[in-house]
Design goal:
Layout (H helix, E strand, L loop, with lengths): L4 H51 L8 H16 L2 E6 L4 E3 L15 H7 L4 E7 L4 E12 L2 E11 L1 H51 L14 H36 L3 E6 L4 E4 L1 H6 L22 H7 L6 E7 L7 E12 L2 E11 L1 H36 L6 H32 L7 E4 L1 H11 L1 H6 L3 E4 L9 E4 H18 L5 E8 L4 E8 L21 H6 L6 H11 L4 E6 L3 E9 L9 H4 L1
């Protein structure tokens, strides 16, 4: 019960009232006792002096004792005191008793001795027999400045004590009533203090459970009211702060969830505390187990256990580069950063950031391969041209037939280098998005017929059969860049002519697709492409049979350029092939494309 502030206030308030009442009671009773005793003592002394005045002149006379006895009997009748008259030797010569019990006896009380010495003396004693207090007073009787006797009086204080006891009972009863009223009033007052505090406590408990809409109804401008106002202000600020923290948390979670880098965090016990989706994608997948470990063992596919233990106890950032492969996935190149987490200057965990650098490494490899390919493609014709020119300079020009033959070779190699440089410039424009497009309505059948006419001589030389089924496909006119799309047909049909043996067949066709696109295909009966090579045929400078392709004048850029053009027209290109059976190259173009002059956005 005393754990409650309300009962503590009631108890303190009641004890304070009780202490004040007792203090007042003690003071009042002592004052009353002193007042009654002083009056009683003064009255007794006045009667003693009166008796002394009567007996002082008759004390030494012969009939003085009879006179004194009669006088004392009269005083005893109305005074209620016990009065004795003693001579100068302390013997009783007159007393209050009718039978003269104390007559001629000597009284040796201390106060009598002092009175015989000429001094007034008094004493207050408690009689254990009747449990009462008695007051004793001894007054000297003087005649001509000489002590001739003593008036010795005593009286019971029973009446005064009875009055005082009644006063005490009245005080105790009043104190009990006042205490009861004080308790009730104290509870009411305490309730006015503790009720707002209890309300604050209850609302604070609701806030602790996550409800920050709590408000205090302020009804006064006192300290409790100020507490309510500050609580409301605190609640408002706390709610705003938590909203800001929640917003920042959502931002951080969104950033972590959608960033390309993997983020893994561990506490100082090595327990997993965060794993973003990118990290899950970068982790090697285990067949039949979609739930990653909840501790540092999640990194075991990346590092040996001994090295991992060292990396998780670092005191400064460390970076490692690793290569991993899981199942049928291709090898990944990863850059792993280990950053120690500190909280109040003490180690609290480790942050692991995983950056996938596979594309960067592949890009570097492609750049190196590109430089090597370009160097090789230029070096071969340049070497041929240089050797033929040197031969001509050494005297071959004097032989007309040999001169014509060598000049034809130089022209062919020069044309090959010009085509190579032209194609490289086209690809460079695609890479930098600096390609200008002139879009117009194009009849694709007419365009294909032009390309077929362009290759008619080669078709006749190789005795190939080219079937054009576009005129029967009834496809609509397309809004495209005519020259660019013509280049696509030239590159694909040119490849088909190169790799289809004499007497082979090339089939061209088209059909409408449901998603608002037109699909075109070029199918040949050539040598075909091995399955493992098909994914790379659209890479720059890639050739399935490098020796044979070079002999046929190929550079390995035709399909790359075709892919970039189709991609810029929001289309797709792919191929299907079987070794010895032929190859089918297909691509799509939208037939709802809006007319415009610059396709840089589309190509992006």
């Amino acid at each position: 019960m005393l754990k409650s502030v309300q009962w503590k206030i009631v108890l303190l308030y009641s004890l304070l009232i009780l202490f004040a009442m007792q203090l007042i009671g003690v003071y009042t009773i002592q004052s009353l006792e002193r007042y009654y005793l002083n009056n009683y003592f003064a009255n007794m002394e006045a009667q003693g002096e009166l008796v002394a005045s009567f007996v002082s002149g008759r004390l030494l006379e012969e009939d003085g004792e009879a006179y004194i006895a009669d006088l004392l009997q009269e005083f005893d009748a109305y005074s209620g005191l016990e009065i004795m008259v003693l001579d100068r030797f302390g013997r009783v010569i007159g007393d209050f008793a009718e039978n003269g019990y104390w007559q001629s006896r000597r009284v040796i009380q201390e106060e009598v001795s002092r009175a015989l010495a000429g001094n007034r003396s008094e004493a207050l004693r408690f009689n254990p027999e009747d449990q009462q207090r008695y007051y004793y007073l001894a007054l000297p009787i003087k005649a001509e400045q000489t002590v001739v006797g003593v008036i010795y009086l005593n009286g019971s204080l029973e009446q005064i004590d009875t009055i005082l006891n009644q006063v005490k009972m009245i005080h105790l009863t009043g104190s009990a009533l006042v205490l009861g009223v004080a308790i009730v009033v104290g509870m009411v007052l305490a309730r006015t203090i503790t009720a707002p505090i209890q309300e604050v406590t209850n609302k604070a408990a609701k806030m602790a459970s996550g409800d920050f809409t709590q408000r205090i109804n302020v009804q006064a401008e006192d300290e409790i009211g100020q507490l309510g106002k500050m609580f409301n202000h605190l609640t408002l600020r706390l709610s705003e702060t938590l909203e800001q923290i929640s917003a920042e948390k959502n931002k951080v979670e969104t950033i972590l969830n959608y960033m390309s880098d993997g983020i893994i965090a561990f506490n100082k016990k090595g327990e997993l505390i965060h794993l973003n989706p990118a990290a899950k994608r970068l982790l090697p997948s285990s067949e039949g187990d979609d739930t990653p470990p909840k501790d540092v063992s999640i990194l075991k596919p990346f590092f040996p256990e001994e090295e991992l233990a060292e990396l998780l106890n670092i005191d400064k950032p460390i970076t490692r580069e690793i290569s991993i492969r899981s199942g049928r996935e291709k090898t990944k190149s990863l850059q792993v950063h280990f950053v120690p987490l500190a909280e109040k200057a003490s180690f609290s965990g480790i942050l692991v950031a995983i950056h996938d650098i596979t594309q960067e490494r592949e890009l570097i490899h492609l750049q190196q391969e590109f430089v090597a390919n370009v160097s090789h493609e230029l070096r071969t014709p340049l070497t041929t041209v240089k050797s033929y020119v040197e031969t001509l300079l050494d005297g071959a020009m004097e032989q007309p037939k040999l001169l014509v033959k060598f000049l034809n070779v130089v022209e062919a190699e020069t044309e090959r280098m010009v085509n190579l440089v032209r194609n490289l410039l086209v690809l460079s424009q695609f890479d930098s998005y600096h390609v200008s497009w002139k879009k117009e309505q194009v009849d694709m059948n007419s365009l294909v017929c032009e390309v077929i006419d362009q290759f008619s001589l080669k078709i006749k030389e190789r005795k190939l059969i080219v079937e054009n089924h576009l005129k029967n496909a009834q496809i609509p006119k397309l809004i495209v860049d005519r020259d660019r799309i013509k280049q696509v047909w030239i590159n694909i049909i040119g490849n088909a002519l190169k790799y289809t043996p004499p007497g082979g067949k090339i089939k061209l066709g088209a059909f409408l697709k449901d998603e608002g696109k037109v699909s075109f295909y070029i199918k040949d009966t050539g040598i075909g492409i091995p399955t493992e090579e098909q994914e790379r045929v659209f890479e720059r400078f890639y050739r399935v049979d490098k020796g044979r392709s070079r002999q046929r004048g190929g550079t390995g850029l035709g399909l790359s350029i075709a892919k970039e053009i189709i991609k810029a027209h929001s289309g797709e290109i792919w191929l299907e092939s079987s070794p010895g059976e032929g190859t089918t190259v297909s691509f799509t173009l939208p037939h709802m494309e809006r007319e415009g002059g610059d396709l840089r956005c589309s190509s992006a």
